[in-house]
Amino acid sequence: MSAGSRSAPNDFSVSEPVPFIDLVQQYQHIATDVQESVQRVFTDQAFVLGEEVSEFECEVAEYCDSRAAIGVASGTDALILSLMALEIGPGDEVITSPFTFFATASSIARVGAKPVFVDIDPASFNLDCGQVEAAITERTRAIMPVHLFGQCAEMEPLWRIAVRERLAIVEDACQAIGAEYHGRRAGVLGTVGCFSFFPTKNLGGAGDGGLITTDDAELATRLRRLRVHGDAGGYRHLEVGYNSRLDALQAAVLRVKLRHLDSWSDARQENARRYGELFRHYQLLDTIELPAVLADRRHVYNQYSVRVRGGKRDAVLKHLRDHQIGAAIYYPIPLHQQECFADLGYRTGDLPQSEAAAREVLALPIFPELQAYQQELVVRGIAESLGRLSRGASIQPKFEFPDQQRAA
Q1: Cβ(70)–Cβ(49) below 8 Å
Q2: Closest of 27, 23, 22, 25 to residue 38, by C-alpha
Q3: How many Cα atoms within 13 Å fall on the side-chain side of residue 237?
Q4: Backbone φ, ψ for residue 297 (5° rounding)
Q5: Can you spell out the DSSP letters for 63-109?
Q6: How far apart are CA 216 and CA 191, in angstroms?
Q7: 115, 174, 222, 293 - which has most CB atoms within 10 Å?
Q8: Per-residue b or e along 11-32, where b marks 16 or more CB atoms closer than 10 Å to that residue's CB
């Protein structure tokens, strides 16, 4: 038993909802600062771009060690605008992962290019770099690795391929702000890095928002132009761009949250470590495979996704939901099996690791404010669903539970 825990009676039973994510707790800790920042924007009545956005861009650039940062309206727009700035379009191909959020591939299709899917590494869920070279054709223009769930893809082999084949690298870092690869942060590991500030991200706003990082000054200038309809100033449009500007209100909220990001990431890492202890304590590692943290990485756990082996994932999920324990599946259908990409010609079985992951992954609560006893409720729920622990069984809890939740 861990320090501070105590033994439980043999009729130990706890029943309490555990949310998948709780943004209310996070807001309560920073509410005053957020409200002051938002009020500043209303006082100035400067809602689109302006100083608030410029300051946020500078702060994120410094955080990521990037020379430039360009705020846009969403993570999806960050991907689309990056491809536009790189002049990728009809007839071009972009290599990416099929096991990711839909926007990764849809951004490629949206600019008229063709997504080419390469299977994933089963340990990290990220692009299997060993399969990328075989997917390159004369039409390939870029590689779009996804730093899935908060852990960076294996970038060094991709750098070598990109240099040799003269390809751009567009980092989909929408789940990975603060993640590191060999001491370098996500966002500076490719030609451009793309981030999302959707509210449930590690750095989440009060709505949609996104950002692009790059060390290429010319590319940064073009991206700033493209986000405002290709306007170079004075209503002089050098190209047809897009309307995708980060709102000042979002920037104000995100500037407050950015100051807390590393401490929140540390809390997520501690929660991940605690899950490892709990799954060992309840002897579930024969069925539950924990997320792998690869060498020289800083994993920031946007999601904590385990594998449930033996075809039992859906039954585990149902049991957790029946007992009001938060869990989710990211992602149930790989992109190469999505109906809208049927014309690409992929068939079931073509990308077996992605298909296996879609059948087995289960994301558990990992938000920074999650308490140890709540994590134990999650793991006990999984143990119950697998028939390892009946309700009210005498297995001693590993962590201390609040007194008021013990059965009389």
Answers
A1: no
A2: 27
A3: 10
A4: -120, 150
A5: HHT-SEEEEES-HHHHHHHHHHHTT--TT-EEEE-SSS-THHHHHHH
A6: 8
A7: 174
A8: ebebeeebbbbbeeebeeeeee
Enter the DSSP assignment of 395.
P
Q: How far apart are CA 299 and CA 125, in angstroms?
A: 13
pLDDT tens string 150-207: 999 999 999 999 999 999 999 999 999 999 999 999 999 999 999 999 999 999 999 9
Q: Please provide residue 115's backbone torsions phi and psi, each rounded to the nearest 5 degrees.
A: -75, 130
Q: Please say if the pLDDT value at position 88 is more than 70.
A: yes
pLDDT, greater one: 391 or 371: 371
Q: Which residues of 293-316 are buried (b: 16+ CB within 10 A; e: fewer)?
A: eeeebbbbbbbbbbbbeeebbeeb
CB under 8 Å to 348, separation ≥6 — which residues?
337, 355
Per DSSP bridges, beta strands 180-181 and 297-298 are antiparallel
- Please classify residue 138 by burial: count the beta carbons closer than 10 Å to its beta carbon, then call 0-12 exposed, 13-18 middle and 19+ buried: exposed
- Work out the number of other CB atoms within 10 angstroms of the CB of residue 207: 14
Q: Which of 170, 407, 153, 180 is nearest to 296 (CA)?
A: 180
- Distance of alpha carbon 399 from alpha carbon 281, whole angstroms: 11
Cis (ω within 30 of 0) for the bond into 331? yes
Which ranges of 259-329 does DSSP label H, i.e. alpha helix? 261-281, 313-322
Buried b (16+ CB within 10 A) or exposed e, 80-89: bbbbbbbebe
Domain with CATH 3.90.1150.10 in the chain: 261-405
Superfamily name and number for 261-405: Aspartate Aminotransferase, domain 1 (3.90.1150.10)
Residue type, 359: R
Q: Which residues pair with 364 in a beta bridge?
A: 304
Of 11-20, 197-206, 382-391, the one with minimum mean pLDDT is 11-20
Nearest to 273 by CA among 295, 287, 294, 291: 291
- The pTM assigned to this predicted structure is 0.93
Can you tell me whether residue 271 is helix, strand or coil? Answer: helix
From the candidate CATH numbers 3.40.1050.10, 3.40.640.10, 3.30.70.100, 3.30.300.130, the one assigned to the domain spanning 26-258: 3.40.640.10
Q: How far apart are CA 213 and CA 215, in angstroms?
A: 7
